[in-house]
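Hey, can you fold this?
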Amino acid sequence: MKDTLQQLLQGQQGFVELRYHKRTANSFVAQKGRVDVANHAITEGVGVRALVGGAWGFAATADISPRAIKRAIDQAQSNARMLAKVKAGPALELARGRLSQQQFTGPGYTELTQMKLEDKLAQVVKYERQLAAASARMHTARCQYKEIIEEKAIVTSDGVACSLQLAQPEFSMTAIAEQDGERTTGHKGAGVSGGWNCLFKHPALDNAVDETARIAVDLLTAKYPEGGQKTVILAPAVVGLLCHEAIGHTVEADFVKSGSVAQGKIGQRVASDLVTMADSGCETISGYAVGNLPFDDEGVETENTVIIKDGFLRSYLHNRESAHEFGVAPTGNARAWLFNDEPLIRMRNTYLMPGTSRLADMIAGVEDGYLVEGAGSGQADANGEFMFGTGYVWRLRNGKKVELLREATLSGIAFDVLQTVDAVSQEFLWDLGTGYCGKGQAAKVDAGGPYVRCKITVGGEQA
């Protein structure tokens, strides 16, 4: 397909970008010892962007014949010309960056595509049956498997000519325990850019059946935490949620232009000097990240973009357009969910760098506080103000874990919370690989980090 797209670009005037994208998505849920839900979908087509007179035009076609693609090119150019006539402000220009010519096949792609679907189904049903049998108090056991198989080819009139084959499987299990009419939930999950074996070796799935069941059952008799400003140790999943939702979105250049809290703060202190945060398309810390991409959907090679370095804000996240406007190189953060979506500035793998402390020592240093586990849903605004739910927390007293407690909410302003960080662990985990970011369209992302000790507002029972 890449050769066909290159041929169609010959003789075109101005900037044209062609992006072929085929996605095969499979998902199924096992419950009550059988496959309860099974879905299969294939989407395929070509998205076209044209830059004419300093304005973008976009068109897409699900017909991938050369004639149909040529019509889409003409339509995109026509759309751009119309918009250029009414466009206010300066004409759009693109920073060049590292334009890719890679032909990339991701790790595990061949393994996952050649594995029989019935073998995948059988393994997931096996896990569900083990989870259901893990406790007499188990009310519901549910296991879900999803996989996205991607094929892409991107060419542009200024030199991009790249293609990829990528596999992104994920697995999660949920246990619902019941006692005297009350129900509580345990959950574990992981996702990777890789194959089946890589997925089930993910550290987040270590002892997953026993851990998921145990948490669900133990929460039946757990109390709620006391609310207030507390010393907490955030687990990697919660750190990842904070990085992605409360900081990552504020440094996406389109949000920065709209007035996010990060606007004008490059070079300023925004966190403790123990905090270094990055967004990477090629993570090299511990493996298993689901957001690994060799290039973005503009064909710009990805990199490890350091956002905060030793507490100081160093970079925003850019596509080619915003990079030119800010006078920097693009960071490879342009992403589109489907062929008929235009690329937006999105995160990939967002994380805090590990530090030098050990988790055991961090716990030993807490006289009264919480270890916060089980990241749930959350939201944040352009000011970095956030509110997150957590699955459960551990009470820390006199340097020891003493009691499992029910879910709590965490709230605060991200940069203020990061200023209070006084310890960052050596231990590190990618732990949001089953997550999808929403920003007008979905994006498969990951996030994680070390354990982080800080001050934060915990919502719970009034003491």
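Oh, and this one too while you're at it.
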Amino acid sequence: MQYDDINPLFQILNATQSAILKDGYNILLSNIGLDYQSDISANNTILVVGENKLANEFVSKTQDKFKIIQKSYIEQYGGIIGDFISIVENEEIQTSQIIFFIKPQLDSRIISKTAQIGIHFANEYHSIDSMINAIEDLIGDFTYENTILYNENKCQYHHRSKTGNSYCYECENICPTFAITKDDELKELRFSDIDCIFCGKCVGVCPSGAMQKANAPLIEITKAARLYQDKIPLIVGKQDIEYISQINDIKDSQVIPLVLPNINMLNEVYLLSILQSTGTQCLIYGNIESNLHDAIEFVNEIYNKIFNQKAIYTQNELTSFNDIKISSFPKYIYNAESTEFSREIFAERIKFFIKDNDYGILENKPSIKYTDLNIRSDKCTLCMSCVESCNTNALISSKSNFELLFNPSKCTTCNVCVDICPEHAIEMPLDGFRLHTSFFEYKTQAYDEPFKCIECGKIFASEKSITKVQSIMLPLFGNDEVKKKSILCCADCKVKIMFKAQS
């Protein structure tokens, strides 16, 4: 096992601290599989977009160096270095790199993103020679890390297109590069690991846990944190190791670094998992982005309400490590399953704290939103469209007695159920997170009496749904008594009476 990344820390830690740091680091790296690295090859095929004076000069000067395809414009492009596909007038053009000599028509939402590796803009270079050098540097074979773990079954964007809307693409929206892009036609995410800069923001912002880092998934971080029991983890990103290694008073203190790829991959689920694993407070060192800031505030408010003490301290609050006294909190060893959604894990951990108590309501944060859905039972026909659209199991049905049930702790407030309800019976007030057992339990939101087939007596629908179908279909059936009767029959009996009428 190589420790080049964390070697500077060993110089400022004692033997016990170093052993815990090393063992925790090994746990994180143990998740990395054989497919952690990929190879890519980029040849000298270049697409030049634009036919102005500078573009023509570039082509003239490099036609012996590169295999050039020149177009006055392109309609769109996609892919990664070595395999870009551009489209112009229904023609697909495959090249290794693209250089724009005109301003492309980019979506205003992505203008601020760092350009993909292999995509060049002429106005960013001070000379043609500097353009040539940049392109030549990217010709050849590359090895890069595959660090994005993605579970489409948990994703709040993947194939959720019943209303034509996109309900969550926070990962793509927050990504500062083109490592994550979305296809709004297919409702699928696209990943380019070679463009990933390991900022971790996609992991931290994902409300369902569909996105994780290969070298630091939640389960492994939780296992590593257990090594820090009764110690204070100093959570630091790899980019800040150099600064931490210059702090001399860590040695022989109760503080031990816990190194992650980037601190901004953390959210409230990760933070609570670390805290319950150690049973102490934790320290976070580094540049904290807004989503992590929300998570820290949210978890600290939970600890303040339950224990009258905060649990997470940030860089600006750190003084001498030798002066820090350990705060003791209840430990909870919870072995989450890889199939569990983030909010399921968070709910299980919070329930351990609150027991039968009521600690009030936490207000939502900009990036952390909870709701206790308001479903109008008088309007709901129990068609269960909302249940079919909910992929976190916050909404479920009890088909045996025609109940619609809702668990607010599992809801990510994606809003699909609100939009898809044909009766407009669902409202989503963003009323916060309640620290009471009722918030973590399924509650009946709508109920109806079962309807029995008038032929065989089998229950096959609810009273409300049959009434709704009758209101729509009876005017269309006119005087056809067989069709009218079929509404009141189960699928099997419906076929029988239709055949009987035609015989």
